[in-house]
Predict the 3D structure of the following.
Amino acid sequence: MDNLYNRMNQSTFPLTALAVFLCLIVFTYEAQAVVFGDGDFIPAQWQSQTFLTQTSTAAASTLSLVGNPPDARSLVLYSSTGFLQPVGRSMIVELKTSAVVSPASVGGITQVDYTEDHYCECFGGGVLWGPAVEQGGVYYIVPGHAMPNGISNVWMTESLTGLTAADFDQVDVNSSVWSNPNSHPDFSSGGLPVTFGYVRAKAFVAHTESVLDNWSVTVTEGVVANENQSWGTLKSAYR
């Protein structure tokens, strides 16, 4: 009987030891977040794209003596119209050339958090603000957020959190909401590289200047989360 017990003990020991060892294995791949930010706005580090109708204009420049603290970015929009013509529409998207994430390299983008400081000398209607992205030559914005009509030089900090690809709509300057709600970027692991920035837009006859500082985007990359393998899970693999 003792010999039988010893033989059984010897035959099961390697499997038991292996299971205990495997039980200690912890998958440590955590979701990663990358942060892009700018409070200096060196012109060479930003790329502008305008979307205009009628005789509207849009321009960006860096202000060295203004900011929260200095420097800051000035966005000047002019929406105009001719006699008996539709009101002009003016949009500018600025991209931080180094703020690029490749979803294919990081397993996808799970969410985007956005923050900026701004104020606006807004005439003739409010000014759309918020994050913008470019993917494959197509531009996308998050619609529905505007600085109110009025004159103010009081800095406001605004944030949008938990944004997903469904929150970003393709730019459509002719749309009343500035975008196409049926077209979104691809944040999946099969998506092309995404460049991040911000948007300003307005319609109505007037000249406005909005000032931007402390631009920040936090991109959460979709990778495997922490996972501890239980004894039951490991044991079932050896049945």
